[in-house]
Amino acid sequence: MAHLVLDKLSKAFGNQQAVSELDLTVAKGEFVSLLGPSGCGKTTTLQMIAGFVEPTSGAVTLDGADLLAKPPSKRGLGIVFQSYALFPHMTVAENVGFGLEMRGLGRAERDSRITEALTLVGLASFGERYPRRMSGGQQQRVALARALVIRPPVLLLDEPLSNLDAKLREGMQAELRAIQRTTGTTTILVTHDQSEAMALSDRIVVMNQGRIEQIAAPEQAYASPASAFVAGFLGKTNRLDGECTDQRISVAGAAFAAPAGTASGPVTVSVRPERIAFGPASPAAIPGRVATRVFQGAHWLFEIETAQGAVSVIRQNTGEGVPGEGDNVHLHAASQDLLVTERRP
Amino acid sequence: MKRRRAATLVPYFLSAPALLLFLAVMIVPLIMTALLSFYDWGQYKGIVPEFTLKNWREMIADDYFLEVYVRTLRISLLVTLFSALIGVPEAYILNRMSPRWRPLCLLIVLGPLLISVVARTLGWALLLGSTGFLNQALVSLGLLSEPVGFMFTETGVVIALTHVLAPFMLLAVWAALQRLDGKVEQAAFSLGASQFSVIRKVVLPQIIPGILSGSVIVFALAASAFATPAIIGGRRLKVASTLAYDEFLNTLNWPLGAAVAVLLLVALVAIIVGCNRLIERRFAQVFE
Ligand SMILES: Nc1ncnc2c1ncn2[C@@H]1O[C@H](COP(=O)(O)OP(=O)(O)O)[C@@H](O)[C@H]1O
Ligand SMILES: [Mg+2]
């Protein structure tokens, strides 16, 4: 199963640790995203796989063969850069054909594979254009075709959609996923956009400061984040400061049983806005007052004033009545929707 | 309405001082030189402001002038070629150097520009002379049986001019290299290209505009260079600029000197504009 394996991969620039002991196993045909804030080491990781950054320590193997022993030009990986990095002096067809030319393929075979790749990305009639005369989205597709035409075992994408406007980005996401399904190419995507990572990937690797915070399927990482960082990075979340004493957590005027194994001391309770419900007063509910209420069609957005500051709540529009601004409410959440983490005082 | 008219005139008023200066120090002397080339001249009568084609006819009829212009062209082309052969790789290597050493190496390469051309050329005269360092070294190494005369030869002029002008090529190419996206080279490597292929198929085509503008600068400076051909070439080996100088200051035939200078200017402009057109069309997609 293991196709591409990163084993304790590390990179230090001077005394700054950009990537620390990264372990990751990617299966054949899998779509994995490296997700994290800017500067967390995603690009560095990708560049180490590609061969443009030499790791300080660790190993990378592809189907059991040591990848680090080969120069970038012998690794045969497909790479799409954030800036597209197209050859400006070559036509689209020449761009796509470059990798085939370097492999010494004959004219006829080259042409048929160029056509095939351009058709795959929906640019069949653009072969004679120069990249400069194309839109960002089209250049992006050319870059993708150029990387895929060499039939790489692994496709590396570094923030490929971040230069596109929001609307185009959504369209390209769907297309990227469809293309990846068609070709079955193992893909590693680097992004700082959590919705992009969730929309595209089989698994998400959430990174922070050069370390892996969590590796999980998108819905799993969203529903049960391994840390407060993951909870905060994947989607919106409310963070409330509380205290744990004698296996009970008290937060903003509510108290409930702590999850097993929670140490006594200050804690952070994270809960998603859409997992909070309004209900009757109870010792386990947080009392508050509706500060703002915004109608969004399919759902309502609330800001609730509590003893611990503002809490956002999202409720589906089911047609039933909802509290109005200024109303007193009580916030309920199921215990499995709460993430309790220790907080450094 | 009136105000709108006034507003459109403002740019002209603002640029008027610069335009006037340009007119006074550049256009007027040029026109006067051009007019001068149509004046008559005689050993005893001096300059006579009478329209005549004598000077131009003399230049066309006398093979000596043709020889000088062909020599000027040959020297300029060779200097441009060698400057490119030296400057382009130099710029590429400098551009890839680690940021720690780059400033130092750049200073060493561009340092000669800080020294007067006359001083540098006299230095070359010392090196190239028949008892100069180069000849002595080659002879004592047994590579030459007797000293070769570099002085007063085209070879000597080309060597010295290349040394003077190669940094201009380097600067132009360097500027073009700086605008390249390093990721484009990485993309080429990832597609299986060797270092050689990357340079030949990816880097070189993209820096053509830089090489071209460097060539224009070097060619123009070489064709109009005075100090270097005057010192290394001496009184015998004439190029267009030293010829014009001689007509003006030795023979005192100003009209003929003016004709020589005007022809040099016209030829330079024609060659440069022509080459620019040709190459811009050929590499249209590289130019923005
Ligand atoms: N060539 C380099 N030299 C020094 N530091 C670098 C270099 N490349 C990246 N870094 C540092 O390594 C860290 C990770 O960078 P990067 O992998 O580009 O982050 P990301 O792609 O996640 O935004 C950053 O703090 C960055 O400043
Ligand atoms: Mg990055």
What is the fold's blueprint, element by element?
The complex is a heterodimer of chains A (345) and B (288).
Chain A: E1 2-13, E2 16-27, E3 31-35, H1 42-50, E4 57-62, E5 65-66, H2 72-75, E6 78-80, H3 92-102, H4 107-120, H5 136-148, E7 154-158, H6 166-183, E8 186-191, H7 194-200, E9 203-208, E10 211-216, H8 218-223, H9 228-233, E11 238-245, E12 248-251, E13 254-257, E14 265-271, E15 277-278, E16 286-295, E17 299-306, E18 309-316, E19 328-332, E20 339-342
Helix pairs in contact in A: 3-4, 3-5, 4-5
Chain B: H1 2-36, E1 40-42, E2 46-48, H2 54-61, H3 63-96, H4 102-110, H5 117-128, H6 133-140, H7 154-178, H8 182-190, H9 195-224, H10 227-233, H11 240-249, H12 254-282
Antiparallel strand pairs in B: 1-2
Helix pairs in contact in B: 1-12, 3-7, 3-9, 5-7, 5-10, 7-9, 7-10, 8-9, 9-12, 11-12
The structure holds adenosine-5'-diphosphate and magnesium ion.
Adenosine-5'-diphosphate binds at residues 13, 18, 36, 38-44 of chain A.
Protein architecture, described:
The complex is a heterodimer of chains A (345) and B (288). Chain A is 26% helix and 36% strand. With 345 residues, chain A is an alpha+beta fold. In chain A, strand 7 (154-158), helix 6 (166-183) and strand 8 (186-191) form a beta-alpha-beta unit. The two termini of chain A are 44 Å apart. Chain B has one domain (28-287): MetI-like fold, CATH 1.10.3720.10. Chain B has a two-stranded antiparallel ribbon. In chain B, a hairpin with a 3-residue loop joins strand 1 and strand 2 (46-48). Chain B starts with a helix and ends in a 6-residue tail after the last helix. The chains are: A alpha+beta (345), B mainly alpha (288). The A-B interface holds A 50-52, 71-79, 81-83, 85-89, 98-99, 102-103, 130, 132, 143, 146-147, 150 and B 181, 183-184, 186-194, 197, 201-202, 205-206, 283, 285-286, 288.
